[in-house]
Design goal:
The protein has a six-stranded parallel β-sheet, with helices on both faces. Helices cover 48% and strands 13% of the residues. The two termini are 27 Å apart. With 256 residues, the protein is α/β, with parallel strands linked by helices. The chain has eleven helices and six strands.
């Protein structure tokens, strides 16, 4: 889903193993606020067919950026949740002249350590042998807060979003995540307005203390913790999330 025809826009980068629909509440709000946006699916997720070859976070970022650039957009505010945050780092690293603002959400700057990398490859083997179905249950448990787990509509919707992911897409993404580079040194190079947002109940994936390291590494970054959310604040608590990001986006896109 995209809204184009503007030189300034928000780029929405989703978490694994979801797709652009995790930002449904932001897209609705942006339309009401007349904020132009572009929302993408990674290869093998949502409406994007699975890739035939492996890719890296860097090459994925290149592909996404050039798709957006071809729309004529010259100024971007990036919003990335989890895997989306890793892509944000790469877009900043290579195309910073187009980036006017950053909103890192439930993500980290560090690369996987050896234990985490081995766990991803073990997960790939299990998916190759048994399919993707078990992964959906695991991710729904890991990524959601107690409040979200009690909301049947949200849990059912999240399951539907995750189930659109293809087996091949999941495997390719896990490989890219396992081999991504450490972005800690990039933090000190960031000079545009930046928000860093964590889910208060994200105890298992990116706890607030981990996410806050990004804010501490970026001069002038503002850190927020969203209650009643874990790894997916834009979807779990969209009201609070939108109250944080919309004034920031309006001000950032307004500035020349």
């Amino acid at each position: 889903m995209m809204k184009i025809g503007f030189q300034k826009a928000v780029l929405l980068l989703h978490a694994f193993p979801l797709n652009k629909d995790m930002y449904r509440f932001q897209m609705e709000a942006f339309q009401k606020e007349n904020i132009p946006f572009v929302a993408v699916d990674y290869p093998g997720f949502g409406d994007n067919p699975p890739p035939d070859v492996d890719y890296t976070i860097e090459t994925l970022a290149d592909s996404i950026f050039w798709q957006v650039h071809q729309l004529g957009i010259k100024d971007l505010v990036l919003i990335g949740d989890s895997m989306g945050g890793y892509i944000m780092f790469q877009i900043w690293k290579k195309y910073k002249e187009y980036v006017k603002g950053l909103i890192f959400t439930a993500t980290r700057a560090e690369a996987d350590d050896n234990e985490a990398r081995k766990a991803r490859y073990a997960l790939i083997k299990r998916i190759e042998q048994n399919g993707k179905e078990f992964l959906i249950d695991v991710m729904l448990d890991l990524q959601t807060s107690p409040t979200t787990k009690q909301d049947e509509y949200k849990m059912r919707t999240l399951r539907c979003i995750m189930e659109k992911a293809t087996k091949k897409g999941i495997i390719k993404a896990l490989k890219a995540l396992a081999e991504r580079e450490d972005n800690t040194e990039i933090l000190k190079t960031i000079y545009v307005p930046t928000l860093v947002i964590a889910g208060k109940d994200d105890e298992k994936v990116t706890p607030p203390k981990v996410v806050e390291k990004i804010a501490k590494g970026i001069d002038g970054a503002r850190f927020h913790v969203v209650p009643n959310s874990a790894h997916l604040p834009p979807f779990e608590n969209p009201k609070e999330f939108n109250q944080i990001i919309i004034p920031f986006i309006k001000q950032t896109l307004k500035e020349e």
